[in-house]
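> forwarded from #structure-qc
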């Protein structure tokens, strides 16, 4: 060790770094409890429109990125045999489908600059597309826009778009 601050026996220093008497990552019962608590909390936080946002209650508003992250996490939970309240995942997917349709319409409005419009598919569109493909909801229009506009996408967005395309064969 070339760090002058760490002088002495490395085994003794390692003992000083230890903060827990046990590691919860390797305790399956603890993991199950954590997953159950997390899924229950996400279920409680779902907004009335089916999406997820920053706050609930008066003025609630779902956000596409938050909803996509939660739906993706619930998809992974389902793949690992985690029980979900019926309808929670389906309502989240339905919200994302509605959002994707609105974004497609904005791209279609671009040539005439009819409000609302946007010039090209963006990074968030790629992420939402991947999550919806994972839910077996494939939209060829968005796929074509993402492919057309791939030079406008960040590397991460290209990666998630690529994962979606790979899943579709």
């Amino acid at each position: 060790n070339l760090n002058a601050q760490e002088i002495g026996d490395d085994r003794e220093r390692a003992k000083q770094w230890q903060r827990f008497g046990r590691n919860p990552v390797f305790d399956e019962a603890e993991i199950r409890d954590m997953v159950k608590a997390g899924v229950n909390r996400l279920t409680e936080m779902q907004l009335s429109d089916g999406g997820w946002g920053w706050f609930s209650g008066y003025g609630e508003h779902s956000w596409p990125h938050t909803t996509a992250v939660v739906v993706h996490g619930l998809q992974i939970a389902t793949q690992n045999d985690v029980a979900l309240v019926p309808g929670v995942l389906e309502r989240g997917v339905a919200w994302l489908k509605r959002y994707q349709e609105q974004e497609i319409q904005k791209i279609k409005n671009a040539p005439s600059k009819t409000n609302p419009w946007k010039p090209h598919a963006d990074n968030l569109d790629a992420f939402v597309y991947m999550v919806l493909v994972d839910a077996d909801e494939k939209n060829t229009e968005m796929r074509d826009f993402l492919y057309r506009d791939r030079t406008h996408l960040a590397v991460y967005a290209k990666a998630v778009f690529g994962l979606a395309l790979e899943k579709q064969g």
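QC bot note: The first helix runs from residue 10 to 17. The chain has a mean pLDDT of 92.
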